[in-house]
Amino acid sequence: MQRDDGEADIYLPPNEMRAVLHKDRVKARVVRLDRRGRPEGRVVEILDRPEQPIIGRLLHEGGVWLVAPEDKRYGQDVLIPKGATGTAKVGQVVVVQLTEPPALFGQPVGRVKEVLGEIDDPGMEIEIAVRKYGVPHEFSEACLAEAKALPDKVRPADKKGRIDLTDIPLVTIDGEDARDFDDAVYCEPAKVGRGKGWRLLVAIADVSAYVQTGSAIDIDAYDRATSVYFPRRVIPMLPEKLSNGLCSLNPEVERLCMVCDMLVAADGEIYAYQFYPAVMWSHARFTYTEVAAILGNTRGPEAQKRKERVKDLLNLHDVYRALLSQRSKRGAVDFETTETQIICDEAGRIEKIVPRTRNEAHRLIEEAMLAANVCSADFIAEGKHPGLYRVHEGPTPEKKEILRGYLKAMGVGLSITDDPKPGEFQAIADATKERPDAQQIHTMLLRSMQQAIYTPINSGHFGLAYEAYTHFTSPIRRYPDLLVHRVIKAILGRTKYQLPMLPTPGEAHAKLAKRLASRVKSPSAKPQKANVAPSKEVQAWEAAGLHCSANERRADEASRDVEAWLKCKYMREHLGEEYGGVVTAATTFGIFVTLDAMYVEGLVHITELGGEYFKFDEQRQELRGERTGIRYAIGTRVRVQVSRVDLDGRKIDFRLVREGEELGARAMKDKGAVPSGVPVKASAKRGARKKPVEAVERSERAPKSAMQAFKTAVKKAANKMKVKGRKTRR
């Protein structure tokens, strides 16, 4: 059970869970500590039971109809009376509405509310996820009617009071599969102060021109707060007429936009900026791959097709390099991480999982958007108008201590101060990038940081090393960006934007909103005075920030759930196969391994690590065998076999093969405890110490029974330790 005050979770034993359901709000009393040291509770009162649909498969067992929930956190099946199954058939995925809650001596009872279809139907995983996480996936009739009434193109009256930029060769640069285009860019050399520099224009779709505050479209957009991206499908924040049509900066059509017009000095400093509404004409739709090819070879075939735009792209590349140099001077964190992309066929089945590579074009657009976002935050702060900032705070005191201990244990010569700056993290990353355990160290650096949130209280962006930062560049798919546009327009018009009374966060993410609230109200950089209560206006902006942050997390969770489902379904076809992989996390109960070839993560349970006792070293973030000294830490290379796939639980289990035996033997030899004749293979690829050829040849000639003797000896020792009761399995 998760506590509202953020303290350690309370464990509820099975008998206490009989009368409650997942997502219930309860009052509990801690009665004891269980044998694992967890606080164990007893439910005193059920405070709130939100109306929530339960998704599962309809079963017919022993003459009884029931639904087995897809989300295993519900813990018990739902009974369905004979006449309440509707048109559903055995085995189909259905949505159930509860009619009777669970009791100590009775299961919950419900009726089938909706039939989703067969479990193997294309897109079923998405249908389940949107209902499981409460993602709004159908627009209201009022919203659709309002969208239908909008014009199909920019009208002459819409251009009134706007700067005409149709002759400026603005272009969009996006992915091959992009359908909505938020941003367009243009750059040209310019005199900045007494030196040289660039004029950089970032034009963003002006959604606020069509979505009026408090309108039906606005209410639906606020409810969603973000577009949700799944493999092969997007649930947009705005109706398609806006997201892919009237607001999208499609090529060779007029579009309304908000422009951040910047002068960038030769050293990458933003010398000056201004905002204004405009009307634009996109002169080209580029893809990242195409732009990267042109920048890599200005005489190549891609460049020949776009001769008239090559010079503009080179100017964009020049200003990008200058902005990038400023990122380095600020000390912003810039770790290279591997993101993956799931490629599906027409039936929704995974064909392959590939790394999503970032080229110069991706980085070019990213730096341009960062520049526009930081100007937006500065403009709002200087205008003294309330709004939403994108805040990313430094590590908590607890995470700082864990990171310090880890860096010391790993022999890293650098550490972080009590009030760390992002440059300290980047310095550690740069100093360790050539180490064999660099991936492990960089992972720990990333994990020590907090998640970014939306809040009206500006306390800076730690990772990007900005004093103020917000989101301005994606109003088609993020509601906070739409609010930022409205605030900027209000400042330009010397008026004040009043946040409307919009719906409050739903129960699906109320818990998350409560956890975020403590961070928003007490930011580390600029705490409010304890005796000054925030005004109603600030409270309204806080609520909007909490809502947008919570929905962002909800969207991420739903996307991860779908990806996990697809990966599990994919790996069912590879049961029993062996793959090389790397340890990506170590816990008290085992290690998580990501496969090299497929980028799929699974668990090797501690019981599969061999016949000895393993201890979890929190400082080193590793499991270590107490007898052999074998270590499994982030970055350790292993070979595993796919042993089990739980589609409903979204879990993949691996077992170690061969590699574990070799590592164990090597660790024993290092301790001087390897029995005579046990083979220890030398492998430079795995980072093993090099051995003379003669020694390797002797080990290869060792009798095959030696390893069996070693295993038997380890098992006997383990059994002996169990009998004496000196150890407990961790």
Describe the 3D structure.
- The chain is an alpha+beta fold.
- It has 5 domains: 14-48, no CATH class; 54-119, Beta Barrel (OB fold (Dihydrolipoamide Acetyltransferase, E2P)), CATH 2.40.50.700; 141-394 and 450-525 and 536-559, no CATH class; 397-447, no CATH class; 575-724, Nucleic acid-binding proteins (OB fold (Dihydrolipoamide Acetyltransferase, E2P)), CATH 2.40.50.140.
- 32% of the residues lie in helices and 25% in strands.
- The strands form 9 sheets. Strands 5-4-3-6-7 form a 5-stranded antiparallel sheet, covered by helices on one side. Strands 8-15-14-11-10 form a 5-stranded mixed sheet, covered by helices on one side.
- β25 (622-625) and β26 form a beta hairpin.
- α13 packs across α14 (536-571).
- The longest helix has 36 residues, at 536-571.
- The radius of gyration is 29 Å and the shape is globular.
- The two termini are 23 Å apart.
